Amino acid sequence: MDKFEPLLIKSKAPRVLNISSGLGSSTEALVNKWGNNEKFLFSYNASKAALNILSINIRNLWNSKNYGIKVVAVDPGYCATNLNGNSGPKEASKGAQAAFVAITTDNFEIPFIRSETNELVLEAAPF
């Protein structure tokens, strides 16, 4: 972070995009929204939860310094990838499209964005 911060400050449109997952949402885990109590997912979920709090902390730090650096975490949805044996119902390209729109939009005030369906609808989601 220390190496990128000066470069981001110099940028005309400084932005940081982290690819997260709703599986890392503490709010959704508390109500067992996903119903995934499988041990093999625990480390993945924990890593995404850590990424979410890191995104929040960096965003708050840079906002407090008025750097104008935008930080967002995007949940591209359950996409078919090698990680899940291509079992996701959504094409990976659709998830990538959500990330692209999130990072290129001028309305960059939502800190966590989810795109659950093949439709490109970005919505605020709970960390």
UniProtKB/TrEMBL annotation:
- The source's superkingdom equals Eukaryota
* Single Gene Ontology MF annotation: oxidoreductase activity, acting on the CH-OH group of donors, NAD or NADP as acceptor
Looking up InterPro entries in the UniProt record yields: NAD(P)-bd_dom_sf, Sc_DH/Rdtase_CS, SDR_enzymes, SDR_fam
The cross-references to SUPFAM superfamilies, in alphabetical order and at most eight, read: NAD(P)-binding Rossmann-fold domains
The record's keywords, sorted A to Z, are:
NADP
Pfam families to which the protein is assigned, alphabetical: adh_short
Q: Which PANTHER family match?
A: SHORT CHAIN DEHYDROGENASE, SHORT-CHAIN DEHYDROGENASE/REDUCTASE SDR
Record-given protein name:
Ketoreductase (KR) domain-containing protein
